[in-house]
Amino acid sequence: MTEVISVDPHHPQPDSIAKAAEIIRGGGLVAFPTETVYGLGADAKNEAAIRKIFAAKGRPSDNPLIVHVASRAMLDRVAFASGDDTLRLIEHFWPGPLTLVLRRRDYIADSVSAGLSTVAVRMPDNSIALDLVEASATPVAAPSANLSGRPSPTRASHVQQDLAGKVDLILDGGETNIGIESTVLDLTGDHPVILRPGWVSREALSQLVGTVELATSDESLKRSPGTRHRHYSPRARVVVVESGSGISLEQLCSAHMASSRVGVISHSRVAVEDPRIRDIRLGESAESYARSIYSSLRELDEWDADIIIVEGINDTGEGEAVMDRLRRAASSDEDR
C-alpha cells in the first residue's frame, strides 16, 4: 500500500520529513512536490533503488533522471561544477527550475545518467523537497511522479492515479506553484545549449551567459529527460491549434463531435454548446497555462474525451516551454 501524508508546504512537519527520509535511505520510493511538478524520489547512489523508479514508471532505461541536491557541497559530490557560466547560473537561478547538465562523478548510480558521462542536476525551490533531500543526507534522483508518457503530476492525487501501490509514500504538499518542468541546460560543450525548454526562459539565460543555443541533434537530446520518448500525453488524442493560425475552435469541435466526445482547453470562448463537448477555460498567459495544463488534460481524460483540442499561446518567453509540452503531447512516438 502507498501511504499519503499531508505536509505543510511552507513549514514541513519534521516528523513527516524524517519518515520520508528514512524510506529514501532504506532504498524506497517517495513522491514529493517541487515548485515545478511532483517528483518520484530515490537515493541517487543506490542502483537498486533507481531501478525501482524505472520499474514503477515504466520508464525507458535510456531516459536519464534529474538529481536533486540541497546544497553546493552535495552538488560537488554529484558533478564537476566549475567555470564562470556554471557558477553564475547557480548563484542566480538556484534554488529554482533550472537543471544543469554537467560532467558526472562516480558517486551516483550509473542508471541515473543512463550510462552517460553527464548528469542532470538541480536544486528545487520548494521547502518540502529541500528538507527531504537534506534529511535524507543523499542526493535524490527524481523524475516526474507519473507513469511514463502521461501528463506530469501537479497534485498528489495525480500521483495516486498513476502510481498507487508502486511507491512507499506520497508527501502531499498541495498543488505545485509553476506546474511545468524545469529548463534543462547543457554546460558540457563549448556553449550553453538548452536540451529541454522550461520555466527559465532562453531570454533569461541569455541575459546572464550570452548566446544560448537550442539542441536539435539526438546525440545532444539524449542527455536530458523529456526529449526523445512519448511524454505529457493523455489517453485522448491531442490536437493543438497554434496561436495565429486562424483555425476556428468552433469548426474543429463541430467536425469531431458527430463521432467523438470533444474536450477543449482554451483561453477564448468556444461558442458551441453540446453535451459531447467539455470546455476548460484558462487565462491566456503562460503562467495560467503552465499551472493548469496537465491537470486539465487529466480532467478531460477522466471525462472520457476521445479528442482534446488545445488552443495554443504565444511561444515566446515562458510560453516556449508550454508550447513544447503541448506539441509533444500532440505527437506520436513516430514523430519524435
Protein architecture, described:
With 336 residues, this protein is an alpha/beta fold. It folds into two domains: 219 residues, DHBP synthase (Alpha-Beta Complex); 99 residues, 3-Layer(aba) Sandwich (Rossmann fold), CATH 3.40.50.11030. Helix content is 32%, strand content 20%. Strands 1, 2, 3, 4, 5, 6, 7, 8, 9, 10, 11 and 12 form a twelve-stranded mixed beta sheet that branches. Strand 11, helix 7 and strand 12 form a beta-alpha-beta unit. Helix 1 packs across helix 5. The radius of gyration is 20 Å and the shape is globular. It starts with a strand and ends in a 6-residue tail after the last helix. The model has no long low-confidence stretch (mean pLDDT 93).
What features would you highlight for this structure?
single chain, 336 residues, alpha/beta, DHBP synthase, Rossmann fold, 2 domains, 4-stranded parallel beta sheet, 11 helices, globular
Summarize the model shown:
The protein is of the alpha/beta class and 336 residues long.
List the helices and strands and how they pair.
Blueprint: E1 3-6, H1 14-25, E2 30-33, E3 38-43, H2 47-57, E4 66-68, H3 72-78, E5 79-80, H4 84-93, E6 98-104, E7 118-122, H5 127-136, E8 140-141, H6 156-163, E9 169-172, E10 183-186, E11 193-196, H7 202-209, E12 213-214, H8 218-221, E13 237-241, H9 249-257, E14 262-266, E15 277-281, H10 286-302, E16 307-311, H11 319-330
Parallel strand pairs: 1-9, 2-9, 4-7, 6-10, 11-12, 13-16, 14-15, 14-16
Antiparallel strand pairs: 2-3, 3-8, 4-8, 5-6, 6-7, 10-11
Helix pairs in contact: 1-5
